[in-house]
Amino acid sequence: MSFIATPQTMHFPEVLPLQSGASLRDYHLAFETYGTLNADASNAVLVCHALNASHHVAGVYAGQDKSEGWWDNMIGPGKPVDTNRLFVIGVNNLGSCFGSTGPMHLHPDTGEVYGADFPVVTVEDWVNAQARLLDRLGITQLAAVLGGSLGGMQALSWTLQYPERVRHAVVVASAPNLTAENIAFNEVARRAIVTDPDFHGGHFYRHGVVPKRGLRIARMIGHITYLSDDVMNEKFGRQLREGLDLKYSTQDIEFQIESYLRYQGDKFSEYFDANTYLLITRALDYFDPARGHGGDLTRALARATAKFLLISFTTDWRFSPRRSREIVKALLDNRRHVSYAEIDAPHGHDAFLLDDARYMNVMRSYFNSIAKELA
């Protein structure tokens, strides 16, 4: 059973310096909390979200059907991350389109919608903003920071930016940086958006339009990379959409997989902001903690003092197990406490959101040990 979740918003009038040299002020962060913060504020778990997710991590909204949080199978009373024992916080990142200040909001200096003028944000900027929210909530140290994919990059960055504030870091289906292939996929998706005639240089709000064509293609590209070849073949194979006869058309939908991708693209274009897509994929591209250490990940991770759990999935070719093992090796080179699980699952990158029993058991066991430390 899911519980009722209540979204909250916190305003920050002060300036937040960004890595680019720009800054934000008078911004808001949307967040949700689940469970109860204990007396010494030691049982807090921060959950960092991936590209198209938000602060709505778990639970449902009152009176809304199908409003489960994106990790509701993982987080809640009696679930692997047990909110009967832990206080969980989900934060929506700056630049998002789900409540925190982003391109759809007004610039405090001009009174105009930011649009393309919203500054580029990085993983490190998000972590700094999250740290300010925790300060407001009276949390000086996290029992754990947890994230999958881009969220895992944030969890890793937490251990480097605020090593003294993190006791455990759980990094799932993630990487220490993007490969050239990953950056290439992101660039093709961005080009689909910026070349849409309705994009208007990122100021499409002024024109009362949305670059839906570009967003559809961007989502279709992304969705292909989240699934494994095996899953796509098992789910769709070469099934035709209608009957058994080919239409011999270059433009009609012929195959079930085409129909599925178009459905996903159409749905995404109705709720996701195009400028947000550009910002978040760029943050993915830029993340590379080893960059400032001559590419040496071991040196980069020397600052981390947390205990780590890393999890990867064998068929995840976008964030392959090899990339998680790079992090594991660098941490072990620094003599850090590391647990690593490589799950033989068929679902590709999306596996980190699904109910694989082995995955869930690893998470349950690890968070049980965290909860026992607090007893």
Automatic annotation (TrEMBL):
<feature type="binding site">
    <location>
        <position position="350"/>
    </location>
    <ligand>
        <name>substrate</name>
    </ligand>
</feature>
<dbReference type="Pfam" id="PF00561">
    <property type="entry name" value="Abhydrolase_1"/>
</dbReference>
<dbReference type="GO" id="GO:0005737">
    <property type="term" value="C:cytoplasm"/>
</dbReference>
<dbReference type="InterPro" id="IPR008220">
    <property type="entry name" value="HAT_MetX-like"/>
</dbReference>
<comment type="subunit">
    <text>Homodimer.</text>
</comment>
<comment type="similarity">
    <text>Belongs to the AB hydrolase superfamily. MetX family.</text>
</comment>
<keyword id="KW-0963">Cytoplasm</keyword>
<protein>
    <recommendedName>
        <fullName>Homoserine O-succinyltransferase</fullName>
        <ecNumber>2.3.1.46</ecNumber>
    </recommendedName>
</protein>
<dbReference type="GO" id="GO:0009086">
    <property type="term" value="P:methionine biosynthetic process"/>
</dbReference>
<feature type="active site" description="Nucleophile">
    <location>
        <position position="149"/>
    </location>
</feature>
<dbReference type="GO" id="GO:0008899">
    <property type="term" value="F:homoserine O-succinyltransferase activity"/>
</dbReference>
<dbReference type="GO" id="GO:0004414">
    <property type="term" value="F:homoserine O-acetyltransferase activity"/>
</dbReference>
<feature type="domain" description="AB hydrolase-1">
    <location>
        <begin position="43"/>
        <end position="354"/>
    </location>
</feature>
<feature type="site" description="Important for acyl-CoA specificity">
    <location>
        <position position="318"/>
    </location>
</feature>
<dbReference type="InterPro" id="IPR029058">
    <property type="entry name" value="AB_hydrolase_fold"/>
</dbReference>
<comment type="pathway">
    <text>Amino-acid biosynthesis; L-methionine biosynthesis via de novo pathway; O-succinyl-L-homoserine from L-homoserine: step 1/1.</text>
</comment>
<feature type="active site">
    <location>
        <position position="349"/>
    </location>
</feature>
<keyword id="KW-0486">Methionine biosynthesis</keyword>
<keyword id="KW-0012">Acyltransferase</keyword>
<keyword id="KW-0028">Amino-acid biosynthesis</keyword>
<comment type="function">
    <text>Transfers a succinyl group from succinyl-CoA to L-homoserine, forming succinyl-L-homoserine.</text>
</comment>
<feature type="binding site">
    <location>
        <position position="219"/>
    </location>
    <ligand>
        <name>substrate</name>
    </ligand>
</feature>
<feature type="active site">
    <location>
        <position position="316"/>
    </location>
</feature>
<keyword id="KW-0808">Transferase</keyword>
<dbReference type="GO" id="GO:0009092">
    <property type="term" value="P:homoserine metabolic process"/>
</dbReference>
<dbReference type="InterPro" id="IPR000073">
    <property type="entry name" value="AB_hydrolase_1"/>
</dbReference>
